[in-house]
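for the writeup, i need someone to sanity check this before i put it in the appendix. the sequnce is what the collaborator sent (i think, or maybe the updated version? ugh). structure was predicted straight from it, no edits. if anything looks off just tell me and ill rerun, i have time this weekend
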Amino acid sequence: MSDSRIGKKIISSHSLLLLAVFVVSHLAISIVQLMMYGGGHPLTKLVGSLPIFVQVIACSIYAFVIYSVIGYLLVIAYPRHKENLVKGLDRAALILAIIFLVVFLFAYIYSWITIRHNMWVIYTFLNPIFGTLMFTTMKPDWMSLLWIVSAIIPSVSLAFGMFLRLKHEGVV
């Protein structure tokens, strides 16, 4: 029984480097978001009283634009060998999405079991662009599961922004 994957790297060094870049970029965005708005969110007054699907869509568009611009700028800042960015882009985005998804699901399940809202504070600090709006508007019902989009948008939009710039430069 020999497996062809034994001895091969499942995650390449390019993916790990890009994952580190994604995490550092996300931390920078998070720090700026928290320093600018504290525990609040710029969209709270606009969408706070609207149905949850409108809140999710509005916050997703807001986050998509921010993360896409950062992804675009990351490629500009990358000095050379931009072909290497293409090699690990999908895996790095997938790993970041899985990390956010696991934390989101843990916080969601914990808040349902214990009927406590305090677990969302952890998710708010991990993903403040979504978390600060979620924390102020989340109610314990099944519709709040729509916020699962918040686990995917950061990595997808970072990858999208990077892809746009790589396409513009003719690498892809």
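The chain has a mean pLDDT of 80. Residues 90 and 159 are 7 Å apart (CA to CA).
thx in advance!!
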